[in-house]
């Protein structure tokens, strides 16, 4: 992802049952928001139970915001005839943190590699056109530790810059966790440093 871009597209709500038919075979598309391989496995296992008489459960996913990783699985179909066409549509829609699974019920007539590529591509396109795509910002997270007497100075920056306060602990010292849009992170970091009354460090979410 280029350095200037600090947004990404994904989905918040799963979609399913997008149906495509060809020569008796049925292809049913599903899409899920995911952020880990563990979630991917859970969704696939659930679909295998739901469609236990199907022949194939082919899928592709893309996970991550800046360091993206992906996988495409043909699940017994000819090499690159299912997983890659599914993944190609994920790229075409410019999505991440998504899993697409296409369940196939074999209709008795072979479609050939070209037919399969078209079927899995079309099924994926149908389901991705049905769901609501959302754009989110890539955020940087800062921990800020300061004495209570400096609360007004800190909160003025939080409010003026419309920062997201994720967590706050107020004991001997105040301990804030804030989210800052990536492109504004350097500026916000400097604003807090200029107060000279706190400690600030970047943390992983």
Automatic annotation (TrEMBL):
Show the Gene3D superfamilies listed in the entry.
Answer: Impact, N-terminal domain
Give the family from UniProt.
Answer: Belongs to the IMPACT family.
User: Its Gene Ontology biological processes?
Assistant: regulation of translational initiation
What's the protein called, per UniProt? Uncharacterized protein, YigZ family
The Impact N-terminal domain, residue ranges? 23-127
Cross-referenced SUPFAM superfamilies, in alphabetical order?
Ribosomal protein S5 domain 2-like
Against Pfam families, the record matches this protein to: Impact_N
State the source organism's domain of life: Bacteria
**GO CC, alphabetical:** cytoplasm
């Amino acid at each position: 992802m280029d350095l200037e871009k600090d947004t990404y597209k994904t989905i918040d709500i799963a979609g399913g049952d997008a149906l495509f038919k060809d020569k008796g075979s049925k292809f049913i598309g599903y899409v899920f928001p995911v952020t880990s391989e563990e979630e991917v496995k859970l969704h696939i296992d659930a679909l295998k139970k739901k469609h236990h008489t199907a022949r194939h459960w082919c899928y592709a996913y893309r996970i991550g915001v800046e360091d993206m990783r992906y996988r495409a699985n043909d699940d017994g179909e000819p090499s690159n005839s299912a997983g890659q066409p599914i993944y190609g549509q994920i790229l075409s829609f410019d999505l991440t943190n998504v899993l697409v699974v296409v369940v196939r019920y074999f209709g008795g007539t072979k479609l050939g590699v070209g037919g399969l590529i078209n079927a899995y591509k079309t099924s994926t396109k149908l389901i991705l056109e049905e769901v609501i795509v959302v754009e989110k910002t890539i955020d940087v997270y800062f921990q800020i530790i300061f004495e209570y007497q400096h609360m007004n100075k800190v909160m003025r920056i939080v409010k003026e810059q419309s920062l997201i306060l994720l967590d706050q602990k107020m004991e001997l010292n105040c301990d804030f966790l804030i989210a800052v849009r990536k492109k504004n992170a350097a500026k916000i970091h400097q604003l807090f440093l200029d107060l000279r009354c706190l400690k600030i460090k970047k943390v992983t979410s």
